[in-house]
Amino acid sequence: MPHVIENMEDWPIYRSYNNNEEFLEKVKDKVLQHLSWLNLGEENTFRKELKNIVYQEKIRLSKTPWKSDDPKEKIFWNEIKRQFKSVKDIDNKGDAEEFDLEILNKILDFYGKEMVANFKPSTFRFAQKALPYIYSRLINSFPQALYKIFSSTDMLYDRMKISGDLDHLRKLENMGTLIVVPTHYSNLDSPTIGLSLNNIGLSGFTYGAGINLFTIKSLSNFMHNIGAYKVDRRRKHKLYLETLKSYSTVALTEGVNSLFYPGGSRSQSGMLEEKLKLGLLGTALDAQRINLQDGNKKKIFIIPVTLNYHYVLEAKKLIENHLKNEGKEDYLEDENATPFGLIKRTYKVITSNPGMTVSFAPALDVFGNKVDEEGESISKIGNKVDIADYFKLNGSIIRDVQRDQQYTQILGERILKEFKENTVVLSSNLVAYVAFQIIRKRFNQFTVFETLSLPKDETIVSGIEFKIVLDRIRDRLKVLEEDKKIILSSDLNLPTEELMNVGIKKVGSSHPTYVLRKNKNGVISTRSMKLLYYYHNKLSSYGLDEYI
Amino acid sequence: MSKVGVIGTGNFGLALANLLAINKKQVLIFARREEIAEKLNKTREHKGQIINERVTASNDLEFIAKECKLLFPIVPSNNFESLLNQLSPFLTPEHILIHGTKGLHITADINEVKHLDKSQVLTMSELILKNTCVERVGCIAGPNLAKELAAEEIAGTVIASRYNDVIKEGKKALNSPVFNVYGSNEIKGVEIASILKNYIAIASGMLEGMGYGDNSKALLITRGMAEMVFFGKAFGASEKAFMGLAGIGDLMATCNSKLSRNFRVGYNLAKGIKVDETLNEIKEVAEGIKTIKVVKLLKSYGFNSPLADALYKIVYEDWDITKGLEYLMSLPVSDDIDFIK
Fold it and tell me: Which among A379, A394, A398 is the nearest to B133, CB-wise?
C-alpha cells in the first residue's frame, strides 16, 4: 500500500528528529519540570542523589563493560566526579544548588545525545529499495529452488500474512499518533513488524533498541537513521528511566509513531505475555494528557499486535533459559549482529514461516477503550466517551501520577486481552499443543520437568490418538473463535490428516533437531521435548487442557 | 462549588447526606419515588431523621448526575444493578462513585444453583466498573451505624479506592469534627470485610439472644475476623483491610449493637422469631442472610468458614441454634493467629 503521508519530509518522525536539538531540549525540560525521580529526604540531598548516579555509572562501566560503550563516556563521568570534588568549597546555598542543577543538565545532555534517534529519508528509502537486492544475493547461498520461489520482497510479503483492519489503521494515522505494541518472541520481531508497518503504508516509527545492538558501526548507523533510539538496560536508576520516559512522551506529543514491547523482554517460555511492564506504556497516558492540556487534538492510539510464528529462531535458547528459571533476559552482546547477519536471519525466519501472521488488533485509546472509524472512544458499555473526562477533577484536566498509574494498569490488562483474542492459531501451534498434552496426560503425575526428561520411547504418539485429540481441540478452538476469543488460521479448516501433516511439517521447521515427525507407519515422535513444550505453550492459556 | 450526590434514601444514605451537608456541601439526594422526594423537601424529615437544609431531594437521576461529579450510591445490593442501569447513560469518566452498599451482586439465581463461580460474584465496585464507563470508584465502610451518625455522634470511616484522588475527594467532602475519614487502597479487602461482618453480626445477635456474655462474644468476633481474612485471601484481597475500620472496627460496632439490622435478625432468631418476621418488622434488608448462602455456594474455593457453615444450617436448614453452637464448638481448633502469615 502507498504511504498515508506520501512525502517523507512531512512525517512527524522526520520533522522531530531533523531538529533533534529542540527535541532534546523538550526531553530535558520535561525531566526538570517535575523532578519526580528525586527521592529527597533529610538524609538524601540532591547532591547525594547525583553523586550516587555517577557512582552507579562508573560501576557499570567497570563491572559490566560492553563493546558498545563509548570510550568517551568514562572521561565524561570522571570529569563530573572531578567537578564534585572541586565544589566542596562552595558555601552559599544558592550557588551550590545552581552547581548541582548545572551537573544535572550536563548528565541529561549526555543521556539525550546518546539516546536520540535520527530519521534519514534516504536511509529509509535505501532500506525499502535495497531489500530485494540483498535478499536475492542472500538467496544465492540457498538452494536454487528457493531462489526461484522467493526472489523478491513481494514474495516475502506473500509468505507473511498481515491481518486486521488495516484501512482503519491507515485512517487513524491521519487522526493521531500510533503506538504499536506487539507480543515479543524473538529479536527478529522488530524487522518483521517494521516490514509489516511499511507494507501497510504507515509513516516511520521510533523505537527503543538495546544499546548492545549498536556495536557494529554500519548497523548502528542504519538503525539510528531509521528511528531507533538507544536504551541501555544496564542502567536502572531513576534519573535514566525518567529520561527514557520523557523521551518517549516528547516523541508522542510531537506526533511520532512509536513501537513498544510492553512485555519487556522476549517470552522465554513461548507463552503469551501474562504481565506487562507499564513504564513506557505510562508515557502514552502522559502524552495524551499533555496533548489535551495543550489543546492539541491529536489522539494517541494503541495498536496491539500479535506475531504468530511457526518457527522462532532462538526458541531453544529461550526455553532452556526459562527452564533454568533464570528469569532475566541476558544482555550479552550478540556477535552475529551485523547488518548482513540480521537480514539473513530475518530472511531465514520469514522463509521458514510460510503462513506466519502479523495480526493487528483493533485500535484502543490510552484507557483501553476501542475507537470507532472516526477515532472516537467507545467505552466498554458501548457509549461514546470524551477521553478528557478521565483526566478531569472538578472540571479541570489535572496531572495525577498515581491516578495515571492505575489507568496504565487498566490499559495493560486490555492489551493482554487483545493479545489473547488476536492470537492466530497456526497449524504448528495446534499440533505442538496436541502432541505435548497427549504425552503430558499420559504421565499426569509427573511435573513438567519430569515430562521433559522422558525417554524417547515414552514420547511417541500414535497417529490415530493424535487425530482424535486434534479434532477435539480444533472443535473447542472453533467455539472460542465464534466467541471472538481467538483467531484460527485458514490451515485449521483442512481435513484432519492434512492439518496434522502440515502442522508437523511447519512446527519449528528450521531447528537442527526436528520438533515433530511422522514416520511411514503414521507414528509421531519428537527429538526435542523442550522445543515441543515451547511451541505448545502458545496455546496454554486458553483452558484447552480439559479437552485432551 | 459543585454539588455532591447521594443516591438512596435509606437510613445510611440520609445520614451520609446530612454529614455532607454539615460539612457545608450542597447535597442532592435521589429518591426513587417522586412523592418521597417531595415529602422530604417539604417536611425536612424522613425515616425519623431531620434533613439538613442543604440537602435537596430529587427523583431525576439525569439532573443529579449532571450537577454532581461526586456521587455516593447507597442502595441495597439487590437494587444496585437496576439503579446502575438507570444511572449509567448519564455518567461520564469524570464522575467519581463511592458506594456504601455492604452486599454482593450475584449474576446467578442463588436459590437455583448448587455452586457459584468467582466470576458470578461481584462486589459493588466491580459492578459499577462492569456496568458504567466510570473508572474512579471507591467504597465507604466502617463502624457507621446510621442512627448514631444521624445523632452526629463522633465516628470514623474508611474510603477505599485504588485511586488516591477518589479518597481525597471523599475525604474533602465528608471529613468533619464529628466524622474522621481514613483512606485505603485496599478496596477489595474493605468491601469484603464490610460484607462478611454482616453474618458475624447475626451470630453475635444469636449469642446475645441466648444470654451468653462477653467471653463468648469476644471469641466469636476474633474467630469471625479470621474467617473474614480466609475468605478475603481466597478472593484476592490482602489481610490489611481487615485490621482497620472496615474490618475489626465494623465488627466491634455491629456485633455489639442492637441498632444493627443483622444483629437483630440473630437476636430474634434466638428468641424464636423467624428471619422473615424480623425483616418485615424492620422493613430493611439484612444483607448477612444472603451472604451466608453466597459463602456456602463458594465453598469449592477451599477457604475455612465454620461460622458461615453453622449459620447456614441454622438459617437455611432449620437447625436448632444450640445444635449449631455445639457443632461449632466441636470443630478442631488451630493456632490462635492462623490468618496472618
Answer: A379
User: Domain residues of chain B, as ranges?
Assistant: 3-185, 189-330
Alpha carbon distance B297, B117 (integer Å): 8
d(CA B180, CA A9): 60
Under the banding of pLDDT at 50, 70 and 90, the label for residue A531 is very high
Query: Any idea which of A16-20, A352-356, B323-327 has the lowest mean pLDDT?
Result: A352-356
Q: What is the pLDDT of residue A139?
A: 39
Q: Which residue range forms the structural domain that includes residue A70?
A: 35-115
* Alpha-carbon distance B92 to nearest alpha carbon in chain A (angstroms): 7
In this predicted complex, what is the ipTM? 0.92
Contacts for B222 with CB less than 8 Å, ≥ 6 apart: none
Q: Are A546 and A475 in contact (CB under 8 A)?
A: no
CA B148 to chain A, closest CA, distance in angstroms equals 31
* Nearest CB partner across the interface for B2, out of A394, A402, A407: A394
Q: Could you tell me the pLDDT band of residue A211, with boundaries at 50, 70 and 90?
A: confident
Q: Are residues A272 and A164 in the same domain?
A: yes
User: Sign (positive/negative) of CA torsion B177, B5, A368, B234?
Assistant: positive
> Which residues of B, range 118-177, sit inside 8 Å of A by Cβ?
130-133, 135-136, 162-165, 169
> What positions of B carry a catalytic annotation?
197
CATH code (residue A182): 3.40.1130
Residues A386, A264 share a domain: yes
* Contact assignment for B89 to A383 by CB distance below 8 Å: yes
Tell me the shortest Cα–Cα distance from A540 to chain B, in angstroms. Answer: 21
CA nearest neighbour of B253 among B173, B175, B155: B155
Query: What are the cell numbers at A411?
Result: 490499559
Contacts of A241 (CB under 8 A, 6+ apart): A37, A235, A279
Instruction: Assess whether A370 and A224 both reside in one domain.
Output: yes
Over residues A40-94, the pLDDT tens digits come to 776 677 888 899 999 999 999 999 888 888 888 999 999 999 988 887 766 677 7
Residues of B in contact with A403 (CB under 8 A): 136, 163-165
Cell numbers given for A457:
520411547
Cell matching residue B53: 437544609
Q: Domain B189-330's class?
A: mainly alpha
Residues 6+ away with beta carbon under 8 Å from A354: A159, A310, A506
User: If DSSP states are collapsed to H, E and C, what string results for A416-466?
Assistant: HHHHHHCCEECHHHHHHHHHHHHHHHHCCCCCHHHHHCCCHHHHCECHHHH
Residue A219 pLDDT: 77
**CATH number, domain B3-185, options 3.30.70.270, 3.40.50.720, 2.30.30.110, 3.90.45.10:** 3.40.50.720
Task: Note whether B92 contacts A387, CB cutoff 8 Å.
Answer: no
Q: Do A107 and A137 lie in a common domain?
A: no
Residues A383 and A371 grouped into a single domain: yes
On chain A, the residues whose CB falls within 8 A of the CB of B62 are none
Same domain, yes or no: A148 and A98: no
What residues in A contact B132, CB-CB < 8 Å? 381
DSSP secondary structure of A10-55: GSHHHHHHHTHHHHHHHHHHHHHHH-TT----SS--HHHHHHHHHH
Phi, psi of B302 (to 5 degrees): 80, 15
The number of domains in chain A is: 3
Of B94, B130, B165, the CB nearest to A403: B165
Type of residue at A367? F
Comparing alpha-carbon positions, the chain B residue that sits nearest to A400 is B165
End-to-end CA distance of chain B: give it in Å, rounded.
47
Residue B133 has its nearest CB partner, among A383, A395, A403, at A383
| Pairwise CA distance, residues A315 & A532, whole Å | 10
For A171, the grid coordinates are 485512517
